[in-house]
Amino acid sequence: MKPRGSIPDIDDVRVVVRDLSRGEGSARLSVLSIARHFGLSNTTFRRHFADVVDEIRTINNIEPVSRGGGSRSTGPCHDCDRLRKENSVLRADVEAAAASVQRLALENYRLRRELEALSGVVNIASRNQTGVVSEAVE
Question: Which domain of life is it from (predicted)?
Fold first, then answer.
């Protein structure tokens, strides 16, 4: 037998998969449990034995995940299209809110200037460094 952590032969892996799939009855066969049986990490086992992982998915009646290149909306994220639409709606809402804030800020500025002019009050910020009023107030 090989030392723990070394990559086992495919035949050894298939024997363990066959034995575990027969022996536990109602329990699902797990890739992680087989990887741990051989002293491997889950990722290492999946990388070296992709065909065995697909067999385990077949045994467990799980649809295999496509490896690479596929459309993003057909992968594990079934809600991607819905989320993209919601995201675009939310972005439009944020843009509308930002435009409203800008409009209100400009209107606030205009109204403050108008109030200052009518009341004869000069805003301290409107004076320059020498203390002279930069705007004529009537």
Answer: Bacteria
Task: Please name the helix (run of DSSP H) or strand (run of DSSP E) that holds residue 83, with its range, or none.
Answer: helix 80-119
Measuring CA to CA, which residue among 138, 102, 104, 137 is closest to residue 123? 137
Amino acid 107: pLDDT: 97
In the structure, what pLDDT confidence band is assigned to residue 7 with cuts at 50, 70 and 90? confident
> Quick one: tokens of 117?
């002019």
Neighbours of 83 (CB within 10 A): 11
How far apart, in whole angstroms, are the C-alpha atoms of residue 50 and residue 58? Answer: 12
Tell me if 40 sits within 8 A of 9, measured CB to CB.
Answer: no
For 2, phi then psi, to 5°, come to -80, 155
Read off the pLDDT of each residue in 28-43 and give the average, rounded to a whole number.
Answer: 86
Does 138 score more than 50 pLDDT?
Answer: no
Is the pLDDT at 19 greater than 90? The verdict is no
- Structure token digits, residue 18: 């066959």
Nearest to 34 by CA among 19, 17, 21, 47: 17
